[in-house]
Amino acid sequence: MVTLTEEKAQARADAFARRKIAFERGQGTAAHLSSVLAGYRGVPLSGYMAMRTEIDPTVAMEEAAAHGPVCVPVIVGKGKPLRFRVWEPDSPMMAGNFGALIPESGAWLEPEILIVPLVAFDRAGGRLGYGGGFYDRTLEMLRANRPTLAIGFAFADQEAAGLPLEPTDQPLDMIVTENGVISL
């Protein structure tokens, strides 16, 4: 019998392969993400610094930063929620845990909107990440305090018919791809 851990590992492997192909084709733009974020000007927002074959939200983050605070996630330790450091387009950056770039310094901020990277998504708002649970713990913590919008940003090819999920997996509120917006 296949375990949930094994199912997730296979789903990740399949999704990484699809994402790599989409990335190599140069399919991804942040145009639809920019349009979505335009409706939330001034609301504290977390983006992310793309790594490997992730779709890059930087253009949308730069546009949002002209109207309000933008931050990026910082991994502070295994098993802990993310923290968020203020980011601006000209922020000096350094490598953080797992190789993601983070601002060298700056204030900490609690976002109300998170642009969430992912490995795979489904049309029910399910998200498969890298397996560390950082976004799940963080969204659970933020949502316990106030409404928090989680926007999955991905290549359309990262969609899966159904994902092996656990009760602790936090759902996305919407998904944005290079092809458009999937409202949930």
What is this structure, in a nutshell?
The protein has four helices and eleven strands. The chain is α/β, with parallel strands linked by helices. The chain has a seven-stranded mixed β-sheet with strand order 3-2-1-6-9-10-11, sandwiched between helices. Strands 4-5 form a two-stranded antiparallel sheet. Strands 7-8 form a two-stranded antiparallel sheet.
Helicity level, as a percent range? 25-40%
**Major sheet:** 7 strands, mixed
> At CATH's second level, what is the architecture?
3-Layer(aba) Sandwich
Number of domains: 1
- For the terminal residues, how far apart are their CA atoms? 32 Å
β content, as a range? Answer: 15-25%
Give the H and E element order.
Answer: HHEHEEEEEEEHEEE
Oligomer: single chain
What's the alpha carbon Rg, rounded to whole Å? 15 Å
For the largest beta sheet, what order do the strands appear in spatially?
3-2-1-6-9-10-11
Average pLDDT figure: 93
| CATH class category label | Alpha Beta
CATH topology: Rossmann fold
Helix/strand-derived category reads: alpha/beta
How many runs of DSSP E, i.e. beta strands? 11
Alpha plus pi helix count: 4
Unreliable stretches covering 5 or more consecutive residues: none
Overall 3D shape: globular
CATH superfamily: NagB/RpiA/CoA transferase-like
Structure description:
With 184 residues, this protein is an alpha/beta fold. The chain has a single domain, classed as NagB/RpiA/CoA transferase-like (Rossmann fold, 3-Layer(aba) Sandwich). It is built from four helices and eleven strands, in the order H-H-E-H-E-E-E-E-E-E-E-H-E-E-E. It has helices spanning 4-25, 31-38, 58-65, 134-145, and strands spanning 45-46, 70-74, 83-87, 93-95, 101-103, 113-116, 120-121, 127-128, 149-153, 174-177, 180-183. The strands form three sheets. Strands 3-2-1-6-9-10-11 form a seven-stranded mixed β-sheet, sandwiched between helices. Strands 4-5 form a two-stranded antiparallel sheet. Helix 3 links the parallel strand 1 and strand 2. The longest helix is centred in the N-terminal third of the chain and has 22 residues, at 4-25. The protein starts with a helix and ends with a strand. The model has no long low-confidence stretch (mean pLDDT 93).
